[in-house]
Structure to design on (225 residues):
């Protein structure tokens, strides 16, 4: 039973389109994240949601918007896709009151903008 | 700006050798330190974490933390070809629960 699941796994789309990536966690964690991993493998935080409240938003273009209907789901919506948005997007979750705040990642969504 | 630095590699070691992966961080307030492993085309997975100065062992893996020198390392004993992956160091500072990741070190274990 997958702990953090995200869909779709692969997405190829044209510039200018709008797309969404869905994420669900069944670990009962209170915090969810979206990370972007570029072609150089750098893993960068995009958003963090804690108890349905946006806690941090790094310098991400406002074309990206996280939506959390409940604490088990954190979806990522992207408007007006650009070539530079091509990357792997990882959803993740953690329980912040446990020691260390270990991050559990989903399998990733490979986005290619053409 | 909080930074976590790793040598991108690749680090190449023969099978059976000890692989040593290093990570330095800039924020002296950092409190929690993690090592993740990422196979090509897969997501990162936690290997181990460490909070206190010194060594922490888990099977073939040993994490070493030196807060005074602001570095954390991961030793892999008896390296196997299956250990070939990218190893990501992550650091939590005292002011944030969100870890900052390094760029990762690529490890290649050759038979």
């Amino acid at each position: 039973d997958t702990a953090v699941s995200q869909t779709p796994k692969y997405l190829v789309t044209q510039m200018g389109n709008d797309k969404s990536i869905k994420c669900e966690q069944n670990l009962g964690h209170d915090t969810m994240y979206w990370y972007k991993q570029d072609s150089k493998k750098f893993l960068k935080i995009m958003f963090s949601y804690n108890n349905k409240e946006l806690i941090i938003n790094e310098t991400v273009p406002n074309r990206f918007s996280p939506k959390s209907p409940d604490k088990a789901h954190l979806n990522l919506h992207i408007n007006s896709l650009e070539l530079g948005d091509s990357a792997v997007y990882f959803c993740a979750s953690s329980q912040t009151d446990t020691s260390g705040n270990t991050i559990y990642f989903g399998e990733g969504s490979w986005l290619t903008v053409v | 700006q909080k930074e976590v630095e790793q040598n991108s590699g690749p680090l190449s070691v023969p099978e059976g050798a000890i692989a040593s992966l290093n990570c330095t961080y800039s924020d002296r307030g950092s409190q929690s330190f993690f090592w993740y492993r990422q196979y090509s085309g897969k997501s990162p997975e936690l290997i181990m974490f460490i909070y206190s100065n010194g060594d922490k062992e888990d099977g073939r893996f040993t994490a070493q933390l030196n807060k005074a020198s602001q570095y954390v390392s991961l030793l892999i004993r008896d390296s196997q070809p299956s250990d070939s992956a990218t190893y990501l160091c992550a650091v939590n500072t005292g002011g944030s629960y969100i870890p900052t990741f390094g760029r990762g070190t690529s490890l290649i274990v050759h038979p």
